[in-house]
Amino acid sequence: MKKRIIAVNSNCYHGYSIEQAVAGIRAAGFKYIELTATKGWTEHVFPDQSFKRLLEVQDLLDRNGLIPFAMSGHTNLMDTARIGDFVNNIRLAHFFGSEYIVSSIGEAHLKDNAVASNEVVAEHIKGLVEYLEKYDMKLVLEVHGDHGTGKILKDIVELVGSPRVLINYDTANAIFYGDVNVPEDFSACIDRIGYVHLKDKAGGHKEWNFPALGKGYVEFPKLFRMMDERGNLSPYSIEIEFTQAGAKDLAEIDQAVMDSAAYLRAQGFEF
Q1: pLDDT per residue over 233-261, tens digit each?
Q2: By CB distance 3.0 to 4.6 Å, which of 114, 119, 123, 140 could disulfide with 168?
Q3: Global pTM?
């Protein structure tokens, strides 16, 4: 059996509560969760929630045996006006004991109010390293938007030059945003990958269609072999975003999470 952290991103339950997400993830047999704190999209936890509410979520996770080892805190890291917000996300991730914080370079679901070159954004990220060191955390930059390939993010990660800043390779975003051959792009940046969003892709390259694992055309077995051959034991986190219309109901999400679990077990993973 293949041993590594296998998690589910609570963003799979976009439009539903963290309580519903936890119930579905636990029922599928997972032990790890990536909490989502993405402004204007999925705010299952967020820095402006009350301390009482954050404690309630912490207790919920404890009762259900789910470890919040990572948090999605997508923020525009090109925008100096948003850097303070991201520092708050780092602190929130630390509150939950997370080892990883995920962010795209630009906003995930809001309009970017600023853009910057790779060199400038690398300087912004360098300024975050002191917080990552203070809280013993890794920042993993997501393949997303205008930074939709591993090769682009590899350049930024190497400009930052810190072992605490790596790539979160989103396997479907590389198709949807980057329009690349995923195995080739994945291989080109694999030494800088520190986290992987396992997200499948169906339909046209520019079609918002991200089904349960194994229901699309992402070549996961090939990617798994590459990671094993390179000895890269970075965590995998499942993300399912369905079609533009979203899941039709909670039962569809729960089933997709179950189906993804079954797919990974068939690939030899245990969790």
Answers
A1: 999 999 999 999 999 999 999 999 999 99
A2: 140
A3: 0.96
Structure tokens given for 9: 């991103």
> Distances from the Cα of 219 to the Cαs of 85, 144, 186, 201, in angstroms?
36, 19, 11, 10
Residue extents of the structural domains in the chain: 6-266
Residue 102 near residue 132, CB atoms below 8 Å: no
- Which residues, listed in sequence order, are joined to residue 72 by a DSSP beta bridge? 36, 102
How far is it, in rounded angstroms, from Cα 259 to Cα 214?
8
Residue 184's pLDDT band, with cuts at 50, 70 and 90, is very high
Which two structure tokens, joined as six digits, stand for 16?
A: 């539903």
Helix residue ranges per DSSP H, 80-230: 80-95, 118-126, 129-134, 150-160, 173-176, 182-189, 220-230
Homologous superfamily, domain 6-266:
Divalent-metal-dependent TIM barrel enzymes (3.20.20.150)
Name the DSSP letter for residue 13.
Answer: G
| Strand 236-238 versus strand 193-198 pairing type | parallel
Residues 246 and 15: beta-carbon distance below 8 Å? yes
Separation of alpha carbons 257 and 271, rounded Å: 13
Q: How far is CA 47 from CA 37, 189, 208, 233, 271, in A?
A: 8, 32, 29, 30, 30
Extended beta strands in the chain, E state: 6-9, 32-38, 42-43, 67-72, 100-103, 138-142, 165-170, 193-198, 209-210, 236-238, 242-243
